[in-house]
């Protein structure tokens, strides 16, 4: 990171000095792209009763994204957030046979926000 330094010398205490500084901040990346988002598994995933499956939201983006998972489990909404990363995982577990649960992955970058969802369905025992 580069810094510019402003030095004032020979300033007398009886002198009044007004200094006006203008800052122009430029992003360190081209943040205008729309990120590509996908799962590491099919959008409809089957999880045998008594087992678990890790699902990962994968993001391809120039700007470092923030990824948040949302899903309902045991009557409450669960969230998991991963900041400034390109992938974020959650563990699908505890599904009974015939039970379904929707997992939503939301990706936020500078000026962009998009979501994709995955349906996990419990099947019979392993």
Automatic annotation (TrEMBL):
InterPro entries registered for this protein in UniProt: Ig-like_dom, Ig-like_dom_sf, Ig-like_fold
Cross-referenced PROSITE patterns: IG_LIKE (PS50835)
Transmembrane stretches, start-end: none
UniProt cross-references to SUPFAM superfamilies, sorted A to Z: Immunoglobulin
Ig-like domain segment(s): 35-115
Protein name as catalogued: Ig-like domain-containing protein
Classification lineage: Eukaryota, Metazoa, Spiralia, Lophotrochozoa, Mollusca
């Amino acid at each position: 990171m580069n810094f510019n330094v402003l030095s004032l010398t020979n300033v007398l205490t009886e002198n009044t000095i007004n200094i006006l500084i203008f800052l122009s901040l430029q992003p360190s990346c081209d943040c205008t792209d729309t990120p590509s988002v996908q799962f590491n598994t099919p959008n409809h995933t089957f999880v045998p009763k008594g087992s678990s499956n890790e699902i990962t939201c994968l993001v391809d983006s120039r700007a470092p994204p923030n990824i948040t998972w949302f899903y309902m489990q045991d009557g409450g909404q669960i969230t998991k957030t991963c900041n400034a990363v390109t992938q974020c995982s959650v563990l699908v577990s505890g599904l009974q046979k015939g039970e379904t649960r929707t997992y939503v992955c939301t990706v936020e970058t500078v000026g962009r926000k998009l979501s994709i969802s995955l349906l996990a369905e419990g099947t019979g025992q392993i």
